[in-house]
Design brief:
By secondary structure, this protein is an all-alpha fold. It has helices at 14-22, 25-33, 39-56, 61-77, 88-107, 115-122, 137-147, 150-160, 166-173, 177-195. It starts with 13 loop residues before the first helix and ends with a helix.
Length: 197
């Protein structure tokens, strides 16, 4: 499902779609910057579900859709500022992280996680067969939402679900690598003690 309704939709032939799928993010960005704007749709298709799922951790489905659209609009308008020393996805998640924080500042409301939100989020997480007899991915993320402060939860999500490096997470969250390592260490320790109770 495409949330980015503000950008024009481009229609590709089968061979054009194959070409866009096989191109790297960097190649697609360079093409967009050269004026081949249809390449941006490939980036949207590649990342929209991941950004949406990242935002769904803290927002309702409707809000996450709105923020996802805003993230891609910001990426589209700010693509000239993209620093190619970073992965495109790192830059995009930085925009998503800041857009999420800005959303809460605008709404001036607290972040809460309820049972129905857990079901919605878990529906977006791929479930392996089993992690253990009693500890499942569902139990781990439910417990994480309940016991971890927001920065620890965000760092853990980016590390384990989005498979970002410590360096990339530091860039996304605007913290030092040592700070991220500390968040991950404390988050794992707190989560482990909560799961073994």
């Amino acid at each position: 499902m495409t949330y980015l309704t503000l950008l024009p939709l481009f229609h590709f032939t089968h061979s054009e779609k194959s070409e866009h799928v096989s191109r790297t993010d960097r190649e697609l960005v360079e093409a967009v910057l050269r004026g081949e704007t249809e390449n941006f749709e490939s980036l949207v298709l590649r990342y929209e579900n991941r950004v949406f799922r990242f935002l769904l951790r803290k927002h309702s489905s409707a809000d996450a859709q709105d923020i996802t659209q805003d993230v891609f609009l910001q990426a589209w308008t700010g693509l000239k500022r993209y620093d190619s020393r970073w992965e495109f996805s790192t830059w995009l998640f930085t925009i998503a992280y800041r857009a999420s924080a800005g959303f809460f500042r605008k709404k001036k409301r607290d972040v809460t996680y309820g049972a129905s939100r857990d079901e919605e989020i878990l529906g977006q997480i791929p479930q392996p067969e089993a992690v253990g007899q009693e500890i499942s991915v569902e139990n781990i993320w439910n417990t994480a939402r309940e016991v971890l402060p927001e920065p620890q939860m965000t760092a853990m999500w980016l590390f384990y679900v989005e498979e970002k490096s410590v360096r990339e997470i530091a860039h996304i969250m605007g913290r030092t690598e040592v700070g991220i390592k500390s968040l991950l260490f404390r988050g794992r320790k707190k989560l482990q003690s909560s799961l073994t109770l």
